[in-house]
Amino acid sequence: MSFSTLVKDELCRVELHDACCKKSEIFGVILAGNLFSYEKNSRNVKVVTENAAFARRIYSTVRRVYGLSPEVSIRRSSKLKKHISYSIIFASMQIINKLLYDFEISAFNENDLFPMNTTLKNVCCKKSFLRAAFLSGGSVSDPEKTYHLEIATRNKMCTEIIKEILKDYGINVKIITRKGNYVAYIKEGENIVDFLNIIGAHGALMEFENVRILKDMRNSVNRIVNCETANLEKTVNAAVRQVENIKLIQSTLGIGNLPENLIDIANLRLEYSELSLKELGEMLCPKLGKSGVNHRLRKLDEIADKIRERSKTL
Ligand SMILES: [Zn+2]
User: Fold this and answer.
1) Which residue ranges form the domains of the chain, and what is each CATH number?
2) How far is ligand 1, taken at its centre, from the CA of residue 121, in Å?
3) Is 198:127 a contact under the CB 8 Å cutoff?
């Protein structure tokens, strides 16, 4: 099941108690998911969805609020038998007139609706509107892949209402046009979480947050591992260089001819090339700290460098 489907299934189970919210949901569905047609001078508003639960929800909400039933038609695509789409058709002028009145919409137009002013005054209704718009034209990417939530609609006004409402919540909405649709989208993970919270998709929100936390953890673990790998590489390279230098000293000057404080460390490094500076220091007698060991090994490097210089001039 896609993450979008998970969210929508949950939203279809959100209960609406107040009539104002039910009306706002119908308004959102029609505004975001509308397909208008003027056939034989009759106005016709149609909402098409592939989600059976959503189709049932629209149908029963309209019935409950207006006491009138929209028509429902079911289409099965011939190619894929499983592919079913549901059309909820508001053909009755009675319903349309009630909608026009309730939402102070001046006119239906083939491409647009013209709400004279937004009737979404209550917070509960704004949330209902957003939920409905998401159910109609929304989708959200699987958080494992990317953070992207969008609502696509043919209605420019709809995206503007969405943007306006979400601005009050501090959610940054961008609008673009795509194939004749207006698309309101949210990119930041934090904002998507807020949006899911507002529309009441709390289960999906938890799921989203879990993925987000895991992703963040994975990123920081990777960062630490990368950092440690880099450090380890540096340590290994240094040890290899030290051993080479000591071997050079051994074959030319002889380790026994080194200053006394360098003899032990040179022998230890030759024997234990894999040990850290701290571990080497602990093997010395008396014990020596990390920086002391480092200092002596640098001395050995310098001596080896001098031997090399001299062999060049000879
Ligand atoms: Zn309300």
Assistant:
1) 3-200 (3.10.28.10), 220-313 (no CATH)
2) 8
3) yes
